[in-house]
Amino acid sequence: MHIPFRLNLTLGLALVSLVILGAVFAPLLTSHDPILDADLMNSEMPPSWDHWFGTDSQGRDVFSRVLHGARVSLTIGIVAQAINSTIGIALGLSAGYWGGWWDDVVNGLTNLMLAIPSLVFALAIMAVLGPGVMSLLIALGLTNWSWSCRITRSAVMSLKSQGYVQAARTLGYGDIRIMLTQLLPNIVGPVLVMATLGIGEAVLAEAALSFLGLGIRPPAPSWGNMLTDAREAIRSVPWATIFPGLAVFITVLGFNLLGDGVRDWLDPRMQVRA
Amino acid sequence: MSAAPDPAGAPILKVEDLHVRFPVSGGLLGRKRTLHAVSGVDLSVQPGQCLSLVGESGCGKSTTALAIMGLQPPSSGAITVEGRPVYGPGAPDRRARARLAQIVFQDPFSTLNPRETVGRALSQPLMLHGVRSRAERAERVATALRQVGLLPEHAARYPHEFSGGQRQRIGIARALILGPRLIVLDEPVSALDVSIRAQIINLLMDLQQNLGLSYLMISHDLGVVEHVSDRVAVMFAGQIVEEGGWREVFTAPAHPYTRRLIETIPNPARLTGGASEILPPAPEPPSGSIFWPPVDRRPDISQPPEPSALVSIGEDHRARVRPV
Amino acid sequence: MSGPLLDIRGLTIGIPNRAGPPLEIVRDLSFDIMPGEVFGLVGESGSGKSASALALMGLNRRPLTTLRGQALYGGQDLLAMPRRSMRKLRGNRISMIFQEPMTALNPLARIGRQIAEMFVLHRGLSWSEARPRAVEALAAVQVPNPEDRARAYPHQLSGGLRQRVMIAMAMACRPDLLIADEPTTALDVTVQAEVLRLIRELCEREGTAVLLISHDLGVIAQMCQRVGVMANGRLLELRDARALFTDPRHPYTRGLLAALPRLGSRATEGRHRLADLDMTIDRNAPDFAATHLIPRGEPA
C-alpha cells in the first residue's frame, strides 16, 4: 500500500497536539481556576459563552477542569508508559540476547503479567499504596510492560544472528554495548509503536482508577474523577460527563492513530531492509 | 602468499579434536537428542597461508568457524590463535581476542548495522581498544577504507547507500581495522555476482599478500577454493574426510565425497574440454581399510560417528578411512 | 511441429513515467524457444532475466509493466492475452518454478493436495481421482515413499525435496514449456546436480521445452542447448551453448567467463588475478558493439 497522505498519522498528530497544547497552555486558555472557582450559585449551568463546557454540580468550570485534567492524565500516561517501555525494553533486550535461564525467568514473568489483567493488578497496587499521583505512576508503570518486552525480545532474537551483531562480538564489544548500540537502534520502530499505544492505555487506566476513587484525589481535577463526580447527574447535567469523556476518547484515539501512523510510516524502511 | 608450509613455524591457528554438540528437543513428547555438528576436527593454519574448509550446508564448517571466533563454545577440544587458547582457563577476554582474529560474513546485507554510518562502525572498535585520539581514529578508518578500494569520504555514509560488493568491502575493512593476523572468511563471495565476486577475490588475495594475513576460508564454491587456497580440508557430516595441499586435493581427489563434490559442480570447462573434465581414477584406500564415511546415504549426525581415522595417502595428503 | 514453440519479439519491460519516457528495465528482447529445447538466459542480478520470465507469465507486479513486444505461442500473443485465458495456460501449458520453493508452496496445505489441485484445476478431475495422480507425480520426481510424502507439509521437507515437489506440480499437466528461474541456486551442489538431472530427464521424456534462468554459467553450460547472455536489460549474445563457451564473441561475455574462477583452471594457469568485469552495456545504445560498454555504475 502506498498512501502519499498518511491520514492516521496526520489525524493522530493533530489530536495528540491538540490535547498536549491544551494541557500546556491551560492557564492561558481559561481564566477560571479548576478548583477554587467553585460557585454554587452558578452550578450545573449548561455550556455558554462564559463557560464553554458548562459548570459542574459545584459550579466549577468544566472546560478549565478538562484542560487541567489533561495535565494530570497526560503526565501520568506518558510517565507511566515511559516506565513500562524502559522495563519492557531492558527485560526484552537482555532476555533475547542472553537467552538461557534469564530468558526463562523473564518469559515466565511476562506470561504471569499477561495472565493477570493489568487493571486488576494496578488496582491491587493502588489499594496497597493508597491514592495519589506517585502511586498511580507506580501502579500503571509496573503493570503494562509485557507487550513491549515480548516485542523487544522477539525482535532481538531475530537480529542477534545478523552479521553485524556477531561482528560486534568478535570486535570485542561488551554485551551491554552491543544491546545499546547494535540492537536497540534497530528495534526502535516497533517499540515506539507499542509505546504510543501504551500511552493511550495508561490514560484510560488512570481514568478508570480515578473513577473508582483510587487515583487522583478530589478536588484536583482528573478526567477519571470528573466522571465519578458527575455520574449521578448524568441525565440532568450531561455536559459534566460528556466533555471529560470526550477528552479521554480524543486522547486515546489520538495516540492509537499516532501509533498506527508511526508503524505505517516506518514500514517501507523495514521492507527495504528485509 | 603461496609460501610452502613451514613445518618448523608455529601455526597461527590450531584446532585440536574440536567437538560441538547441540541438544535438540524432539518435539512435544520426543526424547532429548544430541546433534553432533562437529566431531573431532583438527586444523592448522600456518602464517600467511589460506586454508579452505569445504563442504555442503550442515556439514559443520560454519560451526567450526564460529567456534574459532569465540562465538560458539565447543563441547570439547582446544583452539589456539597465535598460541593463545580461545576458551578455558588462561583464555584472553573478548577484547584481547578481537585483536587476534576477525571474521568476514557471507551476507553483505546483514553484515552492517543499518543505523550506523560506516565511519562509526569502523571507529567504534578502535575507541574500544584504546585509540583515544580522534584524529588517529579517522586516519586509521581512512586507511582501512583505502585498503579495500573505497574512499575515506565513504565513512560518512550509511550501509544502504552502498552496493552488495561495496558492503562486502566494508565488512572486510571492519575485519582489518584492529590489525589481526588471522581472518576467517565465511563464504565471503557466495552471495555476490560473478563480476563482483572476482573483484572481492582479487582484493582478498592482494590484502593477504600486502598485509601478510592468514585466512581460514569457509566455502562451498570449489572454483573459488581452488583458486585462492594453499591447503584444503573437505568436511562431511561434522568430520574432515580429506585434507591436503590444494594441488593434491584437486588433482588427485581420493575420498568419494570429495570426488562427488568435484564431479557434481556444474562447470563450463566440461563443454570446452577444460582440465577437470575427467577426474583421474580414484586411488585405492590403504590396504585393509575403506574410505569412511560412505557417501551414498546421508549420515545420521544425531549419533556419534563411528571410529575412523585420517591417514596419509600421499605426500601432504590425508583421507578418512576405517578398517574393514 | 517445425516452428518455434514460443517466439518473443521486441519484449520491452519498464516502469511507466507520467512525466517522460518510461524507465526501461528490459529493452527489445527477442529470442525463440523450439519445442523440447532447453534455452538458457544467463546474466547477473539486475540484468532483467527474471523480469522477462515473469512478463511471459503475466506475473510482473506493478509498477513493472510490459511496454512493448510480442510473445507468440501457438499463434496467440501471451503478452496481449486476456487474464482469464492466461490463467488457463499458466500451470497447464506453461508452468514455472522458482528459486525458493517454500515461498511458492502453501505452508498450510499437504503437498499431495497441492499437487492434486493442478489436476482438479486444469484437467477437471475430482479430488478423489486427482489424489492417486498426485502420488504418481511425486514418484515421477523420484521422491522416496511418495505415499507418505504426499501427507507431509512443505516445512517438513528438505530444500531439495521441496524443489522436487515444485517440479511435480509444474510438470503435472505435461506443459509445453517449463520456466525455471534459478531453480537450484538455494541448493547444495550435490542436491543441485540431482535436481538438474531430474529436470532434464523429465522434460526430455515429456517433450517439454525449458527456459532456464540462472546467474550460474556452470549450470547454464551443463543444461542448455542455446544460451542468451543478458546485461543491463539487453540481450547481448545468443548462441549455441558450446560455441558460446568455447568462443565467446561479445567482450562482455568474454569478461564474464574470465571473471569466473573455474575449477581446474589453476593447474594450467596458476594463481592469477581474476579479470575484473567492471562494465555493462549501455541500455540505450543502438547496438551491442564493445564501444557501448560502460562502467557498471556502483554508487560512487
What's a quick, concise take on this entry?
By secondary structure, chain A is an all-alpha fold. Chain A has helices spanning 7-24, 26-29, 62-98, 100-115, 118-129, 133-141, 146-159, 163-170, 175-211, 223-230, 239-273. Chain A has a single domain (8-20, 56-273), classed as MetI-like fold.
Give the helices and strands, then pairings.
The complex is a heterotrimer of chains A (274), B (324) and C (300).
Chain A: H1 7-24, H2 26-29, H3 62-98, H4 100-115, H5 118-129, H6 133-141, H7 146-159, H8 163-170, H9 175-211, H10 223-230, H11 239-273
Helix pairs in contact in A: 1-3, 1-11, 3-4, 3-6, 3-7, 3-9, 3-11, 4-7, 5-6, 7-9, 8-9, 9-10, 9-11, 10-11
Chain B: E1 13-25, E2 32-45, E3 50-54, H1 61-68, E4 76-81, E5 84-85, H2 94-98, E6 101-104, H3 118-128, H4 134-147, H5 164-176, E7 182-186, H6 194-211, E8 214-219, H7 222-228, E9 231-236, E10 239-245, H8 246-251, H9 256-264, H10 269-272, E11 289-291, E12 309-314, E13 317-323
Parallel strand pairs in B: 3-8, 3-9, 6-7, 7-8
Antiparallel strand pairs in B: 1-2, 1-4, 4-5, 9-10, 10-13, 11-13, 12-13
Helix pairs in contact in B: 3-4, 4-5
Chain C: E1 6-15, E2 23-33, E3 38-42, H1 49-56, E4 65-73, E5 76-77, H2 83-89, E6 94-97, H3 101-104, H4 111-123, H5 127-140, H6 146-149, H7 159-171, E7 177-181, H8 189-206, E8 209-214, H9 217-223, E9 226-231, E10 234-240, H10 241-246, H11 251-258, H12 265-269, E11 279-281, E12 293-295
Parallel strand pairs in C: 3-8, 3-9, 6-7, 7-8
Antiparallel strand pairs in C: 1-2, 1-4, 4-5, 9-10, 11-12
Helix pairs in contact in C: 4-5, 5-7, 7-8
Word description of this protein:
The complex is a heterotrimer of chains A (274), B (324) and C (300). Helix content of chain A is 72%, strand content 0%. Chain A is elongated and about 75 Å long. In chain A, helix 1 packs across helix 3 and helix 5 (118-129) runs antiparallel to helix 6. Chain A has one domain (8-20, 56-273): MetI-like fold. Chain A is mainly α and 274 residues long. The longest helix of chain A has 37 residues, at 62-98. Chain A contains 11 helices and no strands. Mean pLDDT of chain A is 83; it is low at 268-274. With 324 residues, chain B is α/β, with parallel strands linked by helices. Chain B has one domain: Rossmann fold, CATH 3.40.50.300. Chain B contains 10 helices and 13 strands. In chain B, the strands form 2 sheets. In chain B, strands 3, 6, 7, 8, 9, 10, 11, 12 and 13 form a 9-stranded mixed sheet that branches. Chain B has a 4-stranded antiparallel sheet with strand order 2-1-4-5. In chain B, strand 1 (13-25) and strand 2 form a beta hairpin. In chain B, helix 3 crosses helix 4 (134-147) and helix 4 packs across helix 5 (164-176). The longest helix of chain B is centred in the middle third of the chain and has 18 residues, at 194-211. Mean pLDDT of chain B is 90; it is low at 1-6. Chain C is an alpha/beta fold and 300 residues long. Chain C has a domain at 1-81 and 210-263 and 271-295: P-loop containing nucleotide triphosphate hydrolases (Rossmann fold, 3-Layer(aba) Sandwich), CATH 3.40.50. Chain C has helices at residues 49-56, 83-89, 101-104, 111-123, 127-140, 146-149, 159-171, 189-206, 217-223, 241-246, 251-258, 265-269, and strands spanning 6-15, 23-33, 38-42, 65-73, 76-77, 94-97, 177-181, 209-214, 226-231, 234-240, 279-281, 293-295. In chain C, the strands form 3 sheets. A 6-stranded mixed sheet of chain C has the order 6-7-8-3-9-10, with helices on both faces. Chain C has a 4-stranded antiparallel sheet with strand order 2-1-4-5, covered by helices on one side. In chain C, a hairpin with a 2-residue loop joins strand 9 and strand 10 (234-240). In chain C, helix 5 packs across helix 7 (159-171). Chain C starts with 5 loop residues before the first strand and ends in a 5-residue tail after the last strand. The chains are: A mainly alpha (274), B alpha/beta (324), C alpha/beta (300). The interface between B and C is large, with 46 and 45 residues.
